[in-house]
Amino acid sequence: MTRFPKYIRIQRQRRILSMRMKVPPQVQQFRKPLDRNVAIQAFRFAAQYRPESKVEKAARLEAIAAAKAEGKAAPASKNYSVKFGLDAVTSLVESKKAKLVLIAHDVDPIELVVWLPALCHKMNVPYAIVKSKSRLGQLVHMKTATAVAFTSVREEDKPEFARLIEAVNAHTVYGDRHWGGNILGTKSIHKVAKLEAAKAKEARAKRGL
User: Fold this and answer.
1) DSSP state of 31
2) Which residues of 127-139 are buried (b: 16+ CB within 10 A; e: fewer)?
């Protein structure tokens, strides 16, 4: 018999447990990430606003230093890039500087971000739950990222950004009161069916059928 590593057994047990237990709506919404087509559109747009890497930052600082050495004015450019990190995103949402927030659906523990959709809704900031934290991390040159936020976009990208927000709002429904989970296993389904059959048989016996 194949014996799987402990971490794989734990992953499977957690998945089964999450299926069996009733899941409140606040957590259930993280199991319904953004539609695939809209998510592709969002990540494709966000790729244009990736933060600069270490190499790009070093090159920019070298160019500024070279310009200063030659007595020229340093090239000034506004930093158009997504902000990431839970603390930074939270501050931007609270100050209403965030224009769009993307939240990872697989943050563990979920308590880290379970309140963020409610905060975005309260502050009238568009948000979407997307797959996954590794994909968001790749966007910002990190292994994982819990959330990213757009604060500003270039003038020529504003129409496309407006269409993206419209699509996100159409697919993200806040306040869905549907509970999740409560999916029985095969044994439990047969057990419930057996009990229901016994109750039906008893009811027929009482009626004299």
Assistant:
1) G
2) bbbbeebebbbbb
> In the prediction, which pLDDT does 2 show?
77
Distance CA 76, CA 60 (A): 11
Give the whole-angstrom CA distance, residue 69 versus residue 157.
35
Q: How far apart are CA 62 and CA 74, in angstroms?
A: 11
Question: By three-state DSSP, how is residue 127 classified?
Answer: strand
Which helix (DSSP H) or strand (DSSP E) does residue 123 occupy? Answer: none
Q: How far apart are CA 4 and CA 9, in angstroms?
A: 7
Contact 101, 146 (CB under 8 A): no
Q: Apex CA 168: angle with CA 52 and CA 30, to 5°?
A: 90
The residues of the chain scoring below 50 in pLDDT are none
The sign of the CA dihedral 26, 43, 49, 158 is: negative
CA distance 164 to 42: 7
User: What letter does residue 104 receive in the DSSP assignment?
Assistant: E
pTM for this model (two decimals)? 0.78
| Strand (E) or helix (H) holding 124 | none
pLDDT tens string 1-28: 678 899 999 888 888 888 888 888 888 8
Note the pLDDT of residue 108.
85
Q: How far apart are CA 102 and CA 121, in angstroms?
A: 13
